[in-house]
Each structure stands twice: as C-alpha cells, then as structure tokens.
Amino acid sequence: MIHEVDEALRALVRNDALGGTQISVMFDAPTREWAAKVNAPTVNLYLYDIREDMRRRSRGLSNEYDERGTVVARHRPPRYFKLSYLITAWTRRPEDEHRLLSSLLLCLMASDAMPTRHLTGSLAELPLPVPMTIALPPPEDRSFADVWSALGGELKPSLDLVVSVPLVGTGAMAAGPPVTEEGGLRLGVENTRDTGGPAGARGTGGADDPARRPRPALSRRVRE
Q1: Quick check: is 113 in a domain?
Q2: pLDDT tens digits for 19-63?
Q3: φ/ψ (deg, to 5) at 161
Q4: Which of 6, 71, 130, 217 could form a disulfide with 175 if both were Cys (CB 3.0 to 4.6 A apart)?
C-alpha cells in the first residue's frame, strides 16, 4: 500500500507539477549528510508519520451479494491511514526552491483526492477515493520544527502532504444460508366452554353455569 502511494506521488509530481522536467523526485530522509550529497535540482517527499485517520472510522458491516441478490458475506468497513509527507525542494538558489514549492502547492491543492490516472496496483482497484490534503496546520502533538530536529538538519521551507489511504479487506464473515421456507410456531385459540359437560360443572357451560342462570326480575314498589 505505502509503495503504491509513493509511485502515485512520483507520477503526480513529475507529470503534473514539474511538467516532465528532469528534476529528480526522491523519498529520502533529508538529513544533513543527505543534503550534502545533493548536486542536482531535487524534490524530496519524506514519509515521516503513519497513523490511523480516526475521523473516517465507521462501524457496522456491509453485505456482499451474489448475482441472485443473496447475501454471501459481510465485510467490515475500510479503515483509513494517514501517510504524512514532508515535501522540500533542493536547488542552489532559494528563489528556485520557492518556485518549485509554488508549482507543487498549486498542483496538489487542485484536487481533494489522488487523481485516479496515477493510481496503480491495489489502489487502482479500490472503489473508493484516496483523499489528500496539503499545507494544513500540524496537529497539536507534532510540529515541523520537531521533525527537523529529529533529522538533525536545519529548518527549511516545506509543504506537509497527508494522504489518507483506505485499507479494505480488514475482515470478512461468511453469511449463513438463506431461509427458504417459513418456520415458526402456530398459535391457535381453543374453545374452553364445554357445552356437553356434566350438569353442575362451573364455568363449563352446563345448566348450573352462573353465566347461564336466569337473573331474577327486578321489582319496583310503587307508593300509593
């Protein structure tokens, strides 16, 4: 997955941002020792952080159907991982570096997702976009000065590119066979009144059933 993002970024920078020029595109750590060896105009994309994009995490399962519309499996939703790249330009003159950074910024901010024409391998087969952001403020737990300090180099103008890669196939569960016939319990109501029961039985509909006894007539006393 990560190497496929590298190849997509290499094609995007070379073809769209640099216009097919002979400027080198590299992915090395921009340490002081590495910078001393650079002798040609270079754009460097250093992958310095990998972490899950928790804002894009979702729960639940999605169904997979066959040609008859029957559920054959259930899949967990994809999980997105943020790949953070530190983009720098290396030339003999700071003005030329600034021009390169301007071209890179204009190119990368033109789309909210990686162009599909540059995707290869498993990324090209994904039915999902590959979001990316450029030059956003860093999170509170990280600063670019700390990155440069960890590399042992001097602070340099840079762009922060974050690519959120969806990782699918994290887990699938086979679905049970479909229900082909109606099952369940049959409920009915029985007649508990037994009209043929013995006389004197209470509540069975016999002659002595209180429900069937005649009620005495009500009399009224009339004042004369």
Answers
A1: yes
A2: 878 899 999 999 999 999 999 999 999 999 999 988 867 665 566
A3: -110, 130
A4: 71
